[in-house]
Each structure stands twice: as C-alpha cells, then as structure tokens.
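Listing S7. Sequence submitted for prediction.
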Amino acid sequence: MPHILLIEDNQVTAQALEDTLEAQGWRVTRCGDGAVAMLRLAGKTIYDLLLCDIQLPSVSGLELVRYARTLPQCKEMPIIMFSASECSREARQAGANEFLRKPQDIGKIVETISRLLSGVAKPLVNLPDSTRSWYFRLHSGHATDRLVDAAEVVSRLGQAEAR
C-alpha cells in the first residue's frame, strides 16, 4: 500500500484530502507544518509520494521540496505541489513533478497520484539553476527508459502553439 506524506496547514482541506486518498486504499501521514515535514522526511519512514501545499507555516512548501530533493530517499519520490496561487514554474524548479491549482485542479488529485505512483514520470536529476532544465525518466510500460529534456519539449510545444 503506497504511503503518502500530506503537508497542508488548512485542517478542512487536509481532512478532505486525507479522506479522499484513504478511500483509494493509500496510507496517509498528515502534518500541517513545513518544519515538521522536514523532520519526517529525514526520518526512517520511507514515503512513496509527497503531496504539499506551497504556503505553509515555518518552512514554505518550495523550501521543503528543495530540501526533500537533497535526501537520497527522496531524489526520485514523486512530488505534487498545490496552491491557490499560480506558481507552477516555481514548484517545478523546486523539484515538483506536478503542480495543481486549488480549488479547480484538486479533482485531478487521484488521477495524478495514480499516474505518478505507476512510474510514468519521475525526476531523474535537477541540473544547476543556470540551466533551469529538468530531465525526466519516462517509463513506457515496456521496460524501456528514455531521457527527455523537458525544456526542449516545452519549447517545441510553444512553437506548435504559435503556428
């Protein structure tokens, strides 16, 4: 059973997310503070996925994700960040695999978690900030791995939209 660390300081939102995730059969550990989450990530418990709000007391979600990516047990762990603010770029630069807007994208949470837990997209390496480029290991389901430069993909998508 996958174990998810949920970091959300709003108790109503946290409870609703926890109930939703547990209904899927996933084990959820919840905390409402970024500093507490850092301690949990550095502990002996291994989590399969991190689900994190960006605006948290004591340590922001962005700082928490950057910290998580420095830990050996979290380097390839899928991370979803969510916020009412549009900060998807910052979330991805910090190391998140996915960003969801509250409240409109929260309905996609189960689908997004399922996809990430199945190994569709895992961060492989965070290159220096100067490059702002991320590489992802993509699993096709046929035991083949490919490396894709996400910046190149985004650039090509932008070119296609311009046409």
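Caption to Listing S7: primary sequence and predicted structure tokens for the chain studied. The CA atoms of residues 4 and 28 lie 5 Å apart. The chain has one domain: 3-118.
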